[in-house]
Write a structure and sequence with these properties.
Helix content: 40-55%
Strand order of the largest sheet: 1-8-3-4
Distance between the termini: 30 Å
Radius of gyration: 23 Å
Number of strands: 8
Shape: elongated
Largest sheet: 4 strands, antiparallel
Order of helices and strands: HHHEEEEEHHEEEHH
Length: 229
């Protein structure tokens, strides 16, 4: 069972011989207890940001997103909170269901070299989109040809950015067996907060070893299994 926010904070506090936080005091602790809440979130964010290939991110936050096209508008911006896109999952449908097709993902440089001039020449007419490409700004996608019908809907799979912990009962998406990696990172921050560099270095080394092992167990192992299929 995934560890809760208050459980992680109290484990980190006990590891440095400090008094745990009670449920009643959790919303507004003081001093080192308040710092512990912040440090657990910093540790959590560090692990999540270490790799976008963590499978537990897609397992917990994947969703289908639909975007209605605008007549002759080629580009669209992702909503705030979208983190990673499955570019092989894009498909387009018409409102009456008479047209439905998967969109072929292409590189934007390929689009600029081979398709952009054609689309500009037909920018007042458009057509049924066939291709989808990632914008250079990385915050949206483009369609080619330009959609000639405002009733098209583009649907795709995306992963949202995991949110940090807020309430005492909030749980982490990290597999429970690796919660010690998060604790090591939080303990590093707490020892630095107390200006105990020696203990901080011990915690940092433990964190780095644990994170590498976690990555080998989860990401590298998955990649090897996929190659073997």
């Amino acid at each position: 069972m995934a560890k809760t926010y208050i459980e992680l904070v109290n484990i980190a506090l006990r590891d440095i011989n400090e008094v745990p936080i009670t449920e009643a005091n959790f919303p507004s602790p003081r001093g080192l207890q308040a710092a512990a809440k912040e440090m657990v979130n910093r540790a959590y964010a560090d692990i999540l940001n270490y790799s976008k290939e963590w499978p537990f991110l897609s397992e917990k936050t994947t969703a289908k997103i639909s975007v209605d096209t605008v007549n002759l508008q080629p580009t669209y911006t992702f909503d705030t909170g979208v983190d990673r896109i499955d570019w092989d999952s894009f498909f387009i449908t018409s409102a009456d269901g008479s047209y439905r097709s998967f969109l072929q993902p292409i590189d934007i440089d390929f689009y600029v070299r081979h398709l952009k001039v054609r689309d500009l020449e037909n920018s007042t007419e458009g057509g049924e989109p066939i291709f989808v490409y990632r914008l250079k700004s990385d915050d949206g996608f483009g369609l080619s040809p330009y959609p000639d019908d405002s009733d098209f809907t583009v649907t795709f799979a995306a992963w949202s950015k995991p949110t940090l912990l807020t309430n005492s009962s909030d749980t982490v998406v990290i597999p429970d067996r690796y919660y010690t990696v998060l604790i090591s990172r939080a303990r590093y921050f707490l020892w630095m907060f107390r200006e105990n560099v020696e203990q901080a270095e011990v915690a940092l080394n433990e964190y780095e070893r644990g994170l590498r092992q976690m990555h080998r167990d989860i990401v590298d192992k998955q990649a090897i299994q996929m190659k073997a299929v």
